[in-house]
Design brief:
Number of domains: 2
Largest sheet: 4 strands, antiparallel
CATH class of the largest domain: Mainly Alpha
Radius of gyration: 20 Å
Structural class: alpha+beta
Number of helices: 5
Order of helices and strands: HEEEEEEEEHHHHEE
Strand content: 15-25%
Helix content: 10-25%
């Protein structure tokens, strides 16, 4: 699943081609994604995309008439293509730009979304209850410590809760907890403020590195320009079950938490 670094990489990839450009046509080949694509999406036609922004894992294409809200779901990708580029299977939507390019949404599993709003997109029902951005100032140790008091849920599940903080998916939660030396089994309410400071710093560092390197390459993710990300080359915990810890001689363990695989070192993480 594309996570925050992949989505941010995609936003940065499409922005130079679509921002301050006019949409000439929106071609919808498959309107049944996670939610039906509304007919109002065609109101984007003949509009200039003023801004290409992101909130959580939603990409927002803002025009004076309204905002298109894009989500890549489990397997979606956006690519910048020439306007006559051949259509392939699972290519569901084209946003055609007057500069000869198009932005193409491909989504094999069709769990993504393309919606339209004429109101403030940050108040949309899918967005308004999201937690703070992990790279912003509002995400800090004081906030995380206060939000965790009395929580018996594991620290890993806690930081993966989008109402607590957006965009810390499974890979990045495992890597951040490894970097912070915190066991993913530990209850969120039993983590001190000092350790939350270390964790906040780790989350920010891991996500920044992932964004810089183009996101993590998974089978379903491709950058907007068609190039894979390379962050997986620096994973310390995720996907390394049974391998030697890169910081000690222990073996990386794998457990299940909230129906997701967790990878950690029981010696380095307490």
């Amino acid at each position: 699943m594309p996570e925050l670094p992949e989505v941010e990489t995609t936003r940065r990839g499409i922005r130079p081609y679509i921002e301050q450009q006019r949409v000439t046509k929106v071609v919808v080949r498959q309107p049944q994604l996670r939610w039906p694509i509304p007919d109002a999406i065609h109101d984007l036609e003949q509009q200039v995309i003023n801004l290409v922004t992101r909130r959580g894992k939603y990409i927002l294409l803002e025009s004076s008439r309204g905002t298109a809200i894009l989500h890549l779901g489990m397997s979606g990708s956006l690519r910048v293509l020439e306007k006559d580029y051949p259509v392939e299977k699972h290519d569901h939507v084209d946003i055609v730009i007057d500069n000869g390019k198009l932005i193409r949404l491909r989504d094999p599993r069709r769990f993504g979304a393309l919606l339209w709003t004429t109101k403030n997109p940050l108040k949309h029902k899918l967005i308004r209850s999201l937690g703070p951005e992990p790279l912003g100032d509002a995400f800090n140790a004081s906030y995380l410590y206060a939000a965790s008091r009395g929580r018996g849920v594991s620290i890993k599940q806690f930081i993966m809760n989008g109402h607590i903080v957006v965009g810390v998916g499974n890979i990045y939660a495992c890597e951040s907890l490894f970097m912070a030396g915190i066991s993913p089994r530990r209850a969120a309410g039993n983590v001190s403020k000092a350790r939350y400071q270390i964790l906040v710093n780790a989350i920010k560092e891991v996500l920044k590195k992932a964004i810089e390197q183009g996101g993590t390459t998974l089978k379903d993710f491709t950058q907007a320009g068609g190039n894979p990300g390379y962050f997986q080359q620096q994973l310390f915990a995720y996907g390394r079950a049974g391998e030697t810890c890169l910081q000690c001689d222990s073996r990386i363990k794998q457990i299940r938490q909230g129906q997701r695989s967790t990878f950690y070192c029981s010696r380095c993480q307490k």
